[in-house]
């Protein structure tokens, strides 16, 4: 909503002063947000109105004309200026804008006296573009050529003033509750309250000099749910023409294109009072009747924008005896449009159901100034005033027009007067304030609420335009916003002390994130969407449940039609994008939900499973002056997993080869607890890697936090420290390649006895001196007792026991 | 004899002080104090003296011996210190070479801001609650006083899954879930962080973003409590000298409602590009919980009242860290991530 401040002066005299931003801030503070303060001044200078009194052909140029123009000097003395123009739309007698010597156009061009093909030109004529007017707010015929002022425009006047370019306009970003402020009059009330002034609306009287409307126009409402009030007036002997400039200027400054006197008046009244209106050509209304009814399914209407609209039977239309003549509250029909041929006009002012208008305008993809107002709510108590105001205005600007006697008013659902009861104590207890009752009553009075004491309570009668006020909290808001929110002293709540709580999952997510970042990975956050093709890229077969992804009805792009069932594509895409940016060494992870429907289409809300997914690729150690470069490998990702699990107190788990499709079958693993997989990780399958342009090897992991949450986690408990030194033994075991390091470790732990403290693998060797198909694994076994110092002899039998068991597996001591 | 000793001492001291290195010093030590050294010989020769002379002379020789030892030790310490200093000097390294890198990952800036917000509120006894991202129309809109066809639904363009299921457009449904999950009229102090979704994608809008919701319900919670709580929070988040301003606004789920601004953290209120030269930055929306919301979720607005607030995590992160482009959060460029 744009509001012209010059126009506003008709209703309220607020001294806005030199800086209109200050008052705009006050309005914003009070909940009437001013988005922008627009100065209409386009920077033009020294452009004045002048009258063309003579036109001659340029002696030396076919396309130029030499005009003699009656002007006034800047001091006000009459003067005739010669202007040479190439414009084709000029004629003797026209009042035109003349840019004088040393004038300035909106684009900053300075115009100087000069000669055109030998003829002196003391300036130039201007088009609207040269004033800086947007072509959106002028008629198509005015958009090109020299702008022609209406007859009777005085000469020697500054064009800036004639076109209202000295105005300042507030553009409001109003909240949906303040439907009342979508009008000049509504805003004027807020101006008055905040500017400590009073708003008044000019007296409206309609001289009804024409014959009675009785029997000449009928209006009815068929669907009273969707139309609560429908009023009409008949205006005769109308000449459809351009509106006077003052009216055009006001509309233009408020962002509406002037069309003709009839349409302009309906728009003017909509801006002024917030009541959308429509005008019909009476002679094109079949049966001279209007009815508000539901459309029949499939009924077609051509709207004013020349589009054919097919209607549904839920939509309200205004129809004459035979056909719809308008989509109620959204847009009028082309058939009954007011044209230059029109002489008799029906003015309609009606109130339609907001929700219905909203649905209709959405369904038709058609939003208008009118539909926006109806959606928010139009005050049906204002309708008669609006209708009269429009009749009066049309009469004022259209000489010869007459208003038929009488008005048709079908008021199907009269608006009830509402009251809200409250006490000042309740308002203060709600706000945490100590505002005097008198101040509250006073604030409400300035907002046109009448407040009366009834016993212990105050009863506020709500103005008809304030449908948003329904209870004490609304009263509290009115009081608080005018009292000013900033005047309310901050306090903090009094409450019983309680501990802050965090859910186990939230804690787990926090711990895993910190653990992964601590291990050197960078956290990423990506969109929750994916494309199903990416599952194919991951070699995941169609039968896999991850293909059961929830489709979005209106996805943001073709790239993201479904909710993701795995984070892997997002993580790999992020890696790919980074690699493209030459960030070649990456360690990334994301913790987020994947969405698992129980059935598709959805029968209930899906499971949202938290996953932690990561990728590492490139170099783990970069070449430094004292550190050799080293590429990431399987054991880096395994180390990350082990450290996260250890940090969480998960120390008993099984490890097996993973069957995950997107991982290398020989270089991947699955970690399970009680048969439930909690982590899978390994090298990215080379075919998948090539899809994501990953050169070299990448290693992925996926942790199922949902499953991890179910695992018993070991807390911290202290084990006593032995006072005695321990002893250790290194064993190099030559083992067939079929025997895994973990198998040997298991034997050592099993046979090591009570003193075995730890086993560590410190070397793995294959090659020279080792038989083909075998490798050598070197372990350090540390033993310690709480009872005394151990000597070699104490552990010898355990070592022998281990070796004997290993021999069963084909392993020998090297 | 006494004079002889004196001369001996002077000679020896002169030699000690003139010694060029530790070896020479050692030779001097042997010459005087060694088994066959001059002072040792004198001590041995004491036996030839009469018992009367012996103590006095003995004491005298001993004085000389102690003096020489002290002189020798002193010079030796100096020499050793000089040798060590020379050795350390030789060991000097280039201290400008970089240290061996310690591996360190980075939490996403949005996580860091979220954690900061959570820490503040948990420290004040709030519970951290969560709700589903794929949400029913009922919890996302209806329970929050946003009936179908409410014009305020236009403020939030939604992603729909079905007619009645959508991606939540705000974290506010967690308010409704928490109220419905609590005993009627029981006090509540909670925040709800999480992802939210709106159908909007350009330089200043992301279809996925993060919010933190807050809800406090009790018998005597006031609008001034809301102001006080948020002022504490914003000063903690943006610094003690931050000014906070409350403006009247509208949300269907609160009444009265307010938009909260903070003094621009870039220019400290002077006016700059970030705050569009107003000196203020919009930071969050809040208000007193609308009685309808309490009613719709099983609470009695005549018994309890409270406040709610909601903030955008991206917005806070952008202002706090001076990030100028929303898209950076979701592009996850390593050069971005490693700055936090």
Explain what you see:
The complex is a heterodimer of chains A (814) and B (340). With 814 residues, chain A is α+β, with helices and mostly antiparallel strands. Chain A folds into six domains: 2-40 and 168-194, Phenylalanyl-tRNA Synthetase, Chain B, domain 1, CATH 3.30.56.10; 45-162, OB fold (Dihydrolipoamide Acetyltransferase, E2P), CATH 2.40.50; 218-411, Phenylalanyl-tRNA Synthetase, Chain B, domain 3, CATH 3.50.40.10; 419-487, Phenylalanyl-tRNA Synthetase, Chain B, domain 1 (2-Layer Sandwich); 504-710, Bira Bifunctional Protein, Domain 2 (BirA Bifunctional Protein, domain 2), CATH 3.30.930.10; 727-813, Ferrodoxin-fold anticodon-binding domain (Alpha-Beta Plaits, 2-Layer Sandwich), CATH 3.30.70.380. Helix content of chain A is 26%, strand content 28%. In chain A, the strands form eleven sheets. A seven-stranded mixed sheet of chain A has the order 28-31-32-38-37-36-35, sandwiched between helices. In chain A, strands 3, 4, 5, 6, 7 and 10 form a six-stranded antiparallel sheet that branches. A five-stranded mixed sheet of chain A has the order 12-15-18-19-20. In chain A, a hairpin with a 5-residue loop joins strand 4 (65-72) and strand 5. In chain A, helix 9 (354-364) runs antiparallel to helix 10 (369-376). The longest helix of chain A is centred in the last third of the chain and has 17 residues, at 792-808. The radius of gyration of chain A is 42 Å and the shape is elongated. The mean pLDDT of chain A is 94. Chain B is an alpha+beta fold and 340 residues long. Chain B folds into two domains: 2-90; 109-337, 2-Layer Sandwich (BirA Bifunctional Protein, domain 2). Helices cover 41% and strands 19% of the residues of chain B. Chain B is built from twelve helices and nine strands. In chain B, strands 1-4-5-9-8-7-6 form a seven-stranded mixed sheet, sandwiched between helices. In chain B, strands 2-3 form a two-stranded antiparallel sheet. Chain B is rod-shaped, with a radius of gyration of 42 Å. The model of chain B has no long low-confidence stretch (mean pLDDT 92).
């Amino acid at each position: 909503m744009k509001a012209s401040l010059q126009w506003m002066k008709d209703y309220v005299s607020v001294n806005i002063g030199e800086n209109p931003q200050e008052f705009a801030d006050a309005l914003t503070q009070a909940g009437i947000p001013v988005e922008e303060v627009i100065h209409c001044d386009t920077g033009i200078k020294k452009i004045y109105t002048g009258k063309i009194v003579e036109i001659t052909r340029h002696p030396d140029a076919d396309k130029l004309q030499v005009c003699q123009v009656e002007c006034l000097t800047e001091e006000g003395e009459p003067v005739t200026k010669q202007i040479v123009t190439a414009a084709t739309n000029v004629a003797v007698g026209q009042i035109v804008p003349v840019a004088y010597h040393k004038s300035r156009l909106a684009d900053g061009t300075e115009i100087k006296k000069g000669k055109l093909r030998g003829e002196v030109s003391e300036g130039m004529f201007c088009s609207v573009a040269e004033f800086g007017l947007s072509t959106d707010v002028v008629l198509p015929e005015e958009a090109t050529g020299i702008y022609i002022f209406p007859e009777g425009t005085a000469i020697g006047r500054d064009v800036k003033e004639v076109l209202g370019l000295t105005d300042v306009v507030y553009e409001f970003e109003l909240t949906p509750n303040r439907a009342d402020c979508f009008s000049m009059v509504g805003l004027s009330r807020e101006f008055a309250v905040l500017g400590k002034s009073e708003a008044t609306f000019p007296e409206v009287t309609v001289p009804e000099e024409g014959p009675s409307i009785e029997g000449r126009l009928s209006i009815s409402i068929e669907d009273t749910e969707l139309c609560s009030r429908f009023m009409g007036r008949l205006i005769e002997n109308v000449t459809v023409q351009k509106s006077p400039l003052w009216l055009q200027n006001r509309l233009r400054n408020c962002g509406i294109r002037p069309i003709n006197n009839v349409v302009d008046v309906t728009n003017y009244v909509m801006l002024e009072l917030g009541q959308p209106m429509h005008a019909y050509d009476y002679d094109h209304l079949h049966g001279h009747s209007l009815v508000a009814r539901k459309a029949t399914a499939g009924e077609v209407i051509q709207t004013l924008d020349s589009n054919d609209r097919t209607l549904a039977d839920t939509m309200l239309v205004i129809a004459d005896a035979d056909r719809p003549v308008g989509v109620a509250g959204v847009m009028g029909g082309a058939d009954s449009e007011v044209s230059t041929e029109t002489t008799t006009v029906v003015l309609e002012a009606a109130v339609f159901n907001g929700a219905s208008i909203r649905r209709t305008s959405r369904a038709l993809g058609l939003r208008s100034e009118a539909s926006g107002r109806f959606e928010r709510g139009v005050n049906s108590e204002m309708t008669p005033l609006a209708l009269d105001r429009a009749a009066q205005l049309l009469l004022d600007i259209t000489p010869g027009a007459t208003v038929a006697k009488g008005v048709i008013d079908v008021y199907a659902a009269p608006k009830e007067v509402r009251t809200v009861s409250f006490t000042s104590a309740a308002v203060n207890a709600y706000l945490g304030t100590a505002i005097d009752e008198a101040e509250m009553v006073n604030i409400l009075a300035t907002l046109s609420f009448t407040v009366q004491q009834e016993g212990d309570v105050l009863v506020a009668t709500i103005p008809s335009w304030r449908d948003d006020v329904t209870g004490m909290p609304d009263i509290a808001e009115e009081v608080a916003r005018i009292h000013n929110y900033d005047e309310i002293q901050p306090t903090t709540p009094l409450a019983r002390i309680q501990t802050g709580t965090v859910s186990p999952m939230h804690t787990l997510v926090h711990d895993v994130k910190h653990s992964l970042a601590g291990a050197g990975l960078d956290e990423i956050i990506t969109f929750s969407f994916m494309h199903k093709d990416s599952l194919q890229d991951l070699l995941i077969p169609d039968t896999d449940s991850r293909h059961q992804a929830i489709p979005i009805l209106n996805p943001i792009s073709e790239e993201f039609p479904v909710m993701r069932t795995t984070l892997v594509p997002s993580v790999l895409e992020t890696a790919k994008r980074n690699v493209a940016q030459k960030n070649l060494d990456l360690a990334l992870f994301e913790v987020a939900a994947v969405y698992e429907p129980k059935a598709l289409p959805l029968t209930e809300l899906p499971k949202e499973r938290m996953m932690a997914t990561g990728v590492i690729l490139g170099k783990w150690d970069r070449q430094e002056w004292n550190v050799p470069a080293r590429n990431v490998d399987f054991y880096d990702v395994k180390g990350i997993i082990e450290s996260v699990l250890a940090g969480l107190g998960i120390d008993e788990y099984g490890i097996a080869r993973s069957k995950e499709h997107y991982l290398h079958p020989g270089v991947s693993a699955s970690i399970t607890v009680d048969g439930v997989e909690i982590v899978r990780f390994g090298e990215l399958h080379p075919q998948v890697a090539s899809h994501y342009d990953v050169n070299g090897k990448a290693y992925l992991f996926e942790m199922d936090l949902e499953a991890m949450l179910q695992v018993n986690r070991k807390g911290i408990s202290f084990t006593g420290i032995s006072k005695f030194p321990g002893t250790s033994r290194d064993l190099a075991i030559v083992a067939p390649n079929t025997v895994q390091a973990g198998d040997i470790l298991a034997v050592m732990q099993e046979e090591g006895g009570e003193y075995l403290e730890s086993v560590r693998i410190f070397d793995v060797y294959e090659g020279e001196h080792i038989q083909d198909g075998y490798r050598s694994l070197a372990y350090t076994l540390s033993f310690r007792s709480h009872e005394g110092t151990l000597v070699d002899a104490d552990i010898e039998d355990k070592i022998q026991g281990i070796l004997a068991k290993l021999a069963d597996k084909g392993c020998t001591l090297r | 004899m006494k004079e002889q000793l004196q001369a001996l001492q002077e000679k020896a001291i002169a030699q000690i002080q003139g010694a060029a290195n530790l070896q020479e010093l050692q030779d001097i030590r042997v010459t005087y104090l060694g088994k066959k050294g001059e002072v040792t010989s004198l001590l041995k020769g004491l036996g030839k003296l009469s018992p009367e002379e012996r103590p006095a002379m003995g004491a005298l020789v001993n004085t000389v011996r102690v003096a020489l030892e002290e002189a020798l030790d002193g010079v030796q310490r100096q020499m050793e210190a000089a040798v060590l200093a020379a050795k350390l000097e030789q060991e000097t390294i280039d201290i400008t070479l970089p240290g061996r890198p310690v591996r360190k990952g980075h939490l996403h800036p949005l996580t860091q801001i979220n954690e900061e917000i959570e820490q503040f509120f948990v420290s004040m006894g709030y519970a951290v609650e969560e709700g589903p991202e794929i949400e029913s129309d009922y919890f996302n809109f209806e329970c929050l006083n946003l009936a179908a066809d409410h014009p305020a639904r236009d403020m939030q363009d939604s992603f729909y899954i079905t007619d009645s299921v959508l991606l939540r457009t705000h974290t506010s449904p967690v308010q409704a879930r928490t109220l419905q999950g609590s005993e009627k009229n029981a006090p509540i102090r909670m925040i709800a962080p999480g992802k939210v979704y709106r159908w909007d994608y350009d330089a200043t809008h992301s279809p996925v973003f993060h919010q933190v919701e807050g809800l406090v319900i009790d018998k005597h919670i006031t609008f001034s409590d809301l102001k006080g709580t948020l002022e504490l929070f914003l000063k903690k988040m943006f610094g003690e000298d931050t000014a906070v301003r409350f403006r009247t606004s509208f949300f269907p789920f609160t009444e009265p409602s307010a938009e909260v601004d903070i003094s621009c953290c870039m220019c400290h209120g002077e006016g700059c590009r970030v705050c569009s030269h107003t000196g203020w930055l919009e930071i969050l929306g809040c208000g007193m919980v609308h009685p309808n919301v309490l009613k719709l979720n099983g609470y009695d607005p005549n018994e309890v009242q409270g406040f709610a607030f909601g903030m955008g995590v991206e917005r806070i992160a952008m202002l706090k860290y001076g990030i100028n482009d929303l898209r950076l959060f979701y592009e996850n460029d390593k050069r971005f991530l490693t700055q936090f």
